[in-house]
Design brief:
The structure holds 2 protein chains of 2 kinds. Chain A is about 45% helix and about 15% strand. By secondary structure, chain A is an alpha+beta fold. Chain A has a single domain, classed as Sufe protein. Chain: A (Alpha-Beta Complex). Chain B is globular. Classes of the chains: A alpha+beta, B alpha/beta. The complex binds pyridoxal-5'-phosphate (PLP).
């Protein structure tokens, strides 16, 4: 894989200065999940505000790809209603798992930079990890 | 032709590399690198010499038939080859043929012991003693058994660099321990547990010992009589053999008493609608059509390694390991987790400020295959207080030049990622 393509400016910016990044280590309301293969850990805090819009923050010990993916994800779903959030992560996961067109990522702004790693199933797991965690929190444990 | 050690007593690594077709092939890694791979993930699996590949092809072109049941010529040929393979492996380990059970690999061998031996010999209240840094395949099968049979799991303490804390071994060897199951060589640190001494002391307390030989049997001479282990498990694919084949060595006295692992063809003597009588050992533990060409390929790999000489391989690997350790140590911001002495060629380390995944990705673009992650040993990694490590693991076909190249690329990685590439909460 070409390094400049993967570690382009967008990914670097998001991984070095991630958005919606908060220290959640001691926050009992944050959900924590570990990726067993690589050991990466993500913590996500989310709640629906009085307008039923999503408030979300995360922190993680992860690689540039997973951190950037989480940063972009929080940007994308923040302020959205539950139904919309569900539609978004479903679509993104479908693309990442290969059952939907890669070009759909273009509709999600920065996330389109990950089109390049769709062909690399191992590394792709890093980008999937935050999205899968969000799905698990919302569908399996939360609300 | 197998290679002889040349008279100057240098290891003929350039000649040996020619035996490995994959090491000759060029791969496209990135715009700047179209070249053969620098393969440094030998603890995960090893490359295969043409002698082993040829043995597999030959089997399918000239010997293929089912074993132990066909009376015709071809069946005899296949059966003879399969059983000859068992003999080669037995000789290699100093075991008897009937003590060699073919399995899918280390994992299945350990599961076999947990199921067939553990269920029978470990009663409620007994404990199983493991080390703190076991591979998941020598941990999870015991967790499952412990839950089912209400056993306790206990863990031998290990030092920060993955070496055994021998001073405290005695505290753990008490009459409640029903089995000691430990790795011989750590797949995270490369550290070697002093197996012979540990086994001797366990036996003084009548504790049987299972040794996970996945990382030792491919690299150093291992003799089951000298070690006196009760069980030894290892995988063919980590020693130039095919995937899907491995070995459980077990002392005959245990195999005679153990219940079958799986039921099916080949493991029976006579079958009636309501019951069956079982075949003699080791066949009792090999239900169904076995991985015939796998066994043949593994035996061929063992012949290949034996011709080079396990001691010679070990000495050469030691030279590589010492060199790699001294070179890595000199790189600024590299943290090494492995002990550096009395160890085999597995080195865990990290680059400060650069996540192991990102470092490994960078190295891949330079054509270097090296692992980043938890290496199927999460408790060991957790002990280090990190999420993951980089791990290079050597084999006898690696070269000093490859290590130089790795070091050069690690320096470049630091430059590429400059002051780090991710942010983490401290
Ligand atoms: C120490 C150790 N034990 C067990 C295993 C499992 O081997 P396999 O996956 O071939 O069954 C490995 C290999 O990954 C290992 O390094």
């Amino acid at each position: 894989m070409e390094l400049q393509e993967l570690y382009n400016r967008t990914v670097r910016e998001h991984s070095i200065r991630p958005h919606n990044f908060l220290n959640l280590k001691k926050n009992p309301q944050a959900w924590e999940k570990q990726n067993p293969e690589c050991g990466d850990t993500i913590r996500i805090f989310l709640q629906w505000n009085s307008q039923e819009e999503l408030e979300i923050a995360f922190d993680m010990e992860g690689c540039a790809v997973s951190t950037a993916s989480a940063s972009m994800m929080t940007d994308i779903v923040k302020g959205k209603k539950k139904q919309e959030v569900e539609k978004i992560y479903q679509e993104v996961l479908d693309v990442m798992k290969g059952s939907k067109e890669a070009n759909l990522l273009d509709t999600y702004g920065d996330l389109s930079v990950f089109k390049g790693i769709l062909a690399y199933p191992v590394r792709l797991q890093c980008a999937i990890f935050p999205w899968k965690t969000l799905q698990d929190i919302i569908e399996k444990r939360y609300l | 032709m197998e290679h002889a050690m040349s008279e100057s007593n240098t290891f003929p690594v350039d000649e040996i590399r020619k035996d490995f077709p994959l090491l000759q092939k060029k791969f496209y890694f990135s715009q700047e690198r179209y070249a053969p791979v620098v393969y440094l993930d030998n603890a995960a699996t090893t490359q295969k010499p043409r002698q082993v590949i040829d043995a597999l092809v030959e089997y399918y072109q000239e010997q293929n038939a089912n074993v132990h049941r066909a009376l015709y010529t071809l069946g005899e040929i296949a059966t003879a080859k399969y059983e000859q393979s068992r003999k080669t492996i037995a000789n290699f380990l100093g075991a008897r043929e009937r003590e060699i059970v073919f399995t899918r690999g280390t994992t299945e061998a350990i599961n076999l012991v947990a199921t067939s031996w553990g269920k029978k010999f470990l009663g409620e209240g007994k404990s199983i003693l493991l080390s703190e840094i076991e591979h998941h395949s020598n941990l999870v099968p015991w967790q499952i058994l412990a839950q089912e049979k209400k056993l306790k799991l206990k863990f031998l303490p290990v030092m920060k660099d993955g070496t055994m804390d021998m001073a405290h071994l005695g505290d753990f060897l008490d009459s409640n321990v029903g089995l000691l199951a430990i790795t011989h060589v750590s797949n995270v640190f490369g550290s070697v547990f002093p197996a012979q001494e540990i086994i001797f002391r366990a036996h003084e307390k009548n504790i049987p010992v299972l040794l996970d030989g996945a990382q030792s049997v491919p690299h150093i001479p291992v003799n089951v009589q000298k070690l006196d282990c009760d069980f030894l498990a290892f995988s063919g694919h980590k020693m130039c053999g095919p995937t899907g084949i491995g070995v459980l060595y077990a002392k005959e006295k245990w195999l005679q008493q153990m219940a079958p692992y799986q039921g099916g063809g080949d493991m029976i003597l006579s079958v009636w609608p309501e019951y069956a009588t079982y075949n003699e050992i080791p066949y009792k533990f090999e239900a169904g059509t076995p991985h015939i060409e796998g066994a043949i390929g593994l035996a061929r790999a063992i012949e290949y390694l034996s011709a080079l000489g396990m001691k010679n391989l070990w000495e050469y690997e030691k030279k590589l390991t010492d060199y790699a350790f001294s070179r890595l140590k000199k790189i600024k911001n590299v943290k090494i987790f492995s002990p550096g002495k009395d160890q085999l060629g597995v080195l865990s380390f990290s680059l400060e400020g650069i996540h192991p995944h990102d470092a490994a990705q960078f190295l891949d673009s330079k054509g270097i295959a090296l692992r980043a992650g938890t290496h199927c040993a999460q408790p060991a990694i957790r002990k280090l207080g990190v999420n993951a490590t980089l791990r290079m693991s050597l084999y006898f076909y690696n070269t000093l030049e490859e290590i130089d190249y790795l070091v050069k690329c690690l320096e470049e990685a630091k430059e590429f990622f400059q002051n780090g590439i991710t942010r983490t909460i401290q």
